[in-house]
TrEMBL record, chains A, B:
Organism: Desulfovibrio porci
InterPro entries: Aminotrans_V_dom (IPR000192), PyrdxlP-dep_Trfase (IPR015424), PyrdxlP-dep_Trfase_major (IPR015421), PyrdxlP-dep_Trfase_small (IPR015422), SP_NH2Trfase/AEP_transaminase (IPR024169)
Protein name per Swiss-Prot or TrEMBL: Alanine--glyoxylate aminotransferase family protein
PANTHER family with a match to the protein in the record: ALANINE--GLYOXYLATE AMINOTRANSFERASE (PTHR21152:SF40), AMINOTRANSFERASE CLASS V (PTHR21152)
Domain Aminotransferase class V: 34-334
GO biological process: glycine biosynthetic process, by transamination of glyoxylate
Protein family: Belongs to the class-V pyridoxal-phosphate-dependent aminotransferase family.
Cofactors (names): pyridoxal 5'-phosphate
Residues found modified as N6-(pyridoxal phosphate)lysine: K197
Length: 370, 370
């Protein structure tokens, strides 16, 4: 037998996730595994919870990574909060918002959708108009739309339900660590992210946080959460109290990676990291503008997710193929209506640095001149 | 800021999971991350699927790891097969069988339970008696009960539903790789395991397999699977066909680890690995017998999961504390009625070797003589 490892390229990951992983994070992943109830495992968990609270700007007790990828975070937040027949309002301006609609529908929610144009930030007035007409148990929105390169105004949308009993559910899979996120100040009740975007950890964990109001709503459910694996009230007992109550076996090596990456981020400082993402986004846009590329998003663009229309006569998919084949660089293509029309470039975590950005710009130039 | 890594012990993992991880598997985990649609990522996935089919002894097209721990495998198999009101028969002789009951109930199944004494293998006659009385959509059993140290007669139970339309769902979280598993020959329709037991991969993946009959039953559902993240019909499109259809971002570094560990296992040969587990189980039992320990399971005991009653006057929990504190070795305690009464020792994967077994026996001796 043999493995395929010898055949793998070392690819510079400049798609909007997964992002490049720092060497010390890859190294942390290979620390020998610990048992899920070992006191040393609990040390890692406790330290990681404090880091996550700092990065999410929350005091929420229930703050930990769900054992799955970012989409598991989506599933976990909805399945804990939604009971069949619950009214849910979802703001839709991209692929991941549409996924929320699908997840909530499958759980039996009564879903209403505020349809907003893709490629533009959500207009809070459109959300308010819906909220004025009907009472919702949950209002859900995506912070950073990976499909279109938009950061939505999560704080302004949150204001609309702040003094109500409507729970505010927010996806920041592609935002956390790259742009500001204030779970408590913005009134977010159920929050999730993904490890593989601006946190620069391999995919496999979904940092999540639930407010006291969300946990009270879960405690008042008439039916049990129809997903034992993701029942946060059970998982919570594993993350706090003494003794810890076993739920499922913690993916400890992924915890090591997240713990190290969060340390990298907090050592740099959140504001410095956000400024770096913005500066590197600008460096990339300037470099590509000189090569004739136009940003797809005119206003409210996310620094960490960049969609560009190539210059006339350049095929986006051929360019991507050249970058991957000749230069071992991954960038993503457009989704939905944008397929084949744009390139999507991540400026995320370890990818938001001068060396990878310049390498990408130079490689694009070389591909155009071929 | 700082990490806690400097404070962590290197612990020899001799509980029934997680098991020790081979150095080349830890090293594989730190191979640079690849994008989830990169052709090189697909190479890893294709190779891993072939390996999994070989280890599970199946030709099932739908064979891949669920992106979560072993319990995610349980959730995934049940949530795909069960619709509200479906009749499900679960054979119960341990903690993980009881978990199945909870998972199925939460999904709205009509669950009947064959209660069997804990610490004894299931008697197929008891299952037959239930099957004779009522038609079930699903019959579910646990292969290796981590809580009691039993390997259940999965082949004999499977015979009971082989020529029927009842789907056979089997948990081999703690069996796969340590004892024989024949998914096709034994008529298993929905199968799952965990990475962190006899496969000796860190926790975080649940290898799973679905028969054509299971996939047909899923295709005939009247309602969508109420769990988007674990919908195998969607995930399947990511594992086969061209182009691959994105579902969720694959936890690629965990795939590296599983790919390497499966290569280790298949290079050794399955039969050789099973024989090694049996021999190391015997070595451990002989060594502990000399120190006055008695096996808890008299017959049908699993080589990979060993429960021992300590000699008179020895407190099981004090012994465990001594092993962990003085010798940096983890063994588990009893669950449920067995709490404080037994030690549970894993002879799993990389733990099923002379060096760790002898180190454990010597450490137990040292603790008894303290």
């Amino acid at each position: 037998m043999t493995t395929v490892f010898g055949e793998l390229d070392h690819v510079l990951l400049m798609a909007p996730g997964p992002s490049p992983v720092a060497p010390n994070v890859l190294k942390a992943m290979s620390i020998p595994t610990l048992g899920h109830l070992d006191p040393d495992c609990i040390k890692v968990m406790d330290a990681m919870q404090e880091q996550l609270r700092a990065v999410c700007k929350t005091k929420n007790a229930v703050t930990f990574p769900i054992s799955g990828t970012g989409s598991a975070g989506m599933e976990a937040t909805f399945v804990n909060l939604v009971e069949r027949g619950d009214d849910v309002l979802i703001v839709n301006n991209g692929v991941f918002c549409s996924r929320m609609v699908e997840v909530a529908n499958r759980l039996g929610a009564q879903v209403d959708v505020v349809e907003c144009p893709w490629g533009q930030p959500i207009d809070p007035a459109a959300v308010k108009a819906m909220l004025d007409k009907k009472h919702y148990k949950i209002l859900a929105a995506v912070h950073a739309e990976t499909s279109t390169g938009i950061n939505n105004p999560i704080a302004a949308i949150g204001e609309l339900v702040k003094n109500s009993d409507t729970l505010y559910l927010v996806d920041s899979v592609a935002g956390l660590g790259g742009v500001d996120m204030r779970v408590d100040e913005w009134g977010i009740d159920a929050f999730y992210s993904g490890s593989q975007k601006c946190l620069s950890v391999p995919p496999g964990l979904a940092p999540a946080s639930f407010s006291d109001a969300a946990m009270e709503a879960i405690a008042k459910r008439k039916t049990k959460v129809p997903n034992w694996y993701m029942d946060v009230s059970l998982i919570r007992k594993y993350w706090e109290g003494s003794p810890r109550v076993y739920h499922h076996t913690a993916p400890i090596n992924m915890y090591y990676a997240l713990h190290q990456a969060l340390d990298n981020l907090l050592t740099e400082g959140l504001d410095a990291a956000f400024a770096r993402h913005t500066a590197m986004h600008q460096r990339l846009s300037d470099g590509l503008a000189k090569l004739g590329f136009t940003p797809f998003v005119k206003e409210g663009g996310a620094p960490q997710i960049n969609l560009y229309l190539p210059p006339a006569g350049v095929d986006a998919n051929a360019l991507r193929a050249c970058l991957r084949k000749e230069h071992k660089i991954e960038v993503a293509g457009g989704l939905g209506d944008l397929a084949g029309k744009v390139i999507r470039v991540g400026v995320m975590g370890e990818g938001a640095r001068e060396e990878p950005i310049d390498r990408l710009i130079n490689a694009v130039k070389a591909c155009l001149n071929k």
